[in-house]
Design brief:
By secondary structure, the chain is mainly α. The chain is built from twelve helices and two strands. It has helices at about 5-30, 40-60, 75-100, 105-125, 160-165, 170-190, 190-200, 205-210, 215-235, 250-260, 265-285, 300-315; strands at about 290, 295.
């Protein structure tokens, strides 16, 4: 395989792994605090729709029913996408923390709600079969060329790596990568992170120390909502075909959960796990049909390859993954 082909695959894998990484870190905060959240998919989907819809509305001229903004529409979309995701996170928190309901059922309900509502509202809003208009210009996040990328492009090896792999991504990709060391530092080097992890392991001990477990868990689900909103906004505002499509998350929230288990609830391994799944997706996209001599691998198999290998990896290579001890269990304060 040629060097430039490898670079193209790695570049594509980086882009495809960004929303997975954001959703994976979102689940990490929530689950390390003891709140299991399989509603990552629904929050990403709702965030993607609201981000695209608000960005499109902000960019439309006033005479066409829009806000007539000439710049910053993508930031408007990002803000409302995060807001929508946080609202759903608070609903999940209300159901699982305050009302002490089943956390899995709450997550499933959010997924169903987002899948149906985004299409229904989108059809009534834009009359495009549940889609939003394609976003262009300031209504989407454009690629960023890092300093010196063009000048170093002709330097052997280093130049192409910097120009094509490191440079040229949009802002949200760099935010996703920056969240890995930030999350590690928060969880391992701050008092808040220590309390958060303790709330997922032994909430009674945290309560005994005079720390509000309920507040900690709500903080975790809010952070989860923010990151899911950014992940959803990336899908609709940061990809080449910017805009919202029906069910555009396509199971990415569940793959993020698989990556979280694969990483054993740690941020740095989560980066590797998400990049692996992104690489599998990039390979499937590039090689739509693969001729191996005796027969041609059909395109349907290549499209299903990332999901098949997700199951294989989880079944055979994860080993013993132990979740937080108090995960999934509502905390009842002793009186």
């Amino acid at each position: 395989m040629e060097f430039l082909t490898i670079l193209q695959l790695l570049d594509s894998a980086t882009r495809l792994s960004a929303p997975l990484l954001l959703a994976c870190l979102a689940g990490l905060y929530s689950e390390r605090a003891g709140i299991f959240d399989i509603g990552l998919e629904g929050k990403m989907l709702a965030g993607a729709f609201v981000a695209a819809a608000m960005a499109a509305t902000a960019a439309l001229p006033v005479d066409q029913g829009g806000w007539g903004m000439t710049w910053g529409a993508a930031w408007v979309g990002l803000f409302f996408g995060i807001l929508m995701s946080v609202v759903l996170s608070l609903v999940h928190g209300l159901a699982s923390i305050t009302l002490q309901g089943n956390q899995l059922i709450s997550g499933v309900a959010i997924n169903f709600f987002a899948a149906g509502t985004t299409v229904l509202v989108g059809q009534n809003w834009f009359h495009m079969g549940g889609q939003t208009p394609q976003l262009k210009g300031h209504a989407r996040f454009e690629s960023i060329t890092l300093p010196g990328a063009e000048q170093l492009g002709d330097v052997p090896v280093i130049g192409p790596v910097y120009e094509q792999l490191i440079s040229g991504h949009n802002l949200l990709v760099y935010v996703a990568l920056a969240m890995v060391p930030l999350t590690w530092w928060i969880l391992n080097r701050t008092r808040f992170g220590l309390h958060l992890r303790a709330a997922g392991e032994n909430p009674a001990a945290v309560d005994t120390a005079g720390i509000n477990v309920i507040r900690l868990r709500y903080s975790a689900v809010i952070i989860c909502g923010i990151l899911c909103g950014v992940a959803g906004a990336y899908l609709s505002l940061g990809t080449s075909a910017a805009g919202f499509l029906k069910d555009m998350t396509a199971g990415k929230g569940f793959i993020a959960l698989a990556a979280l288990i694969f990483a054993k609830w740690r941020p740095v391994p989560a980066l590797g796990a998400c990049f692996l799944f992104g690489l599998l997706d990039a390979i499937a996209n590039k090689y739509q049909s693969l001729d191996i001599g005796l027969f041609v691998v059909p395109v349907q198999f290549m499209q299903a390859l990332p999901y098949i290998l997700t199951v294989v990896i989880l079944a055979g290579f994860v080993g013993k993954a132990i979740p937080p001890k108090a995960g999934g269990e509502p905390y009842v304060k002793e009186r």
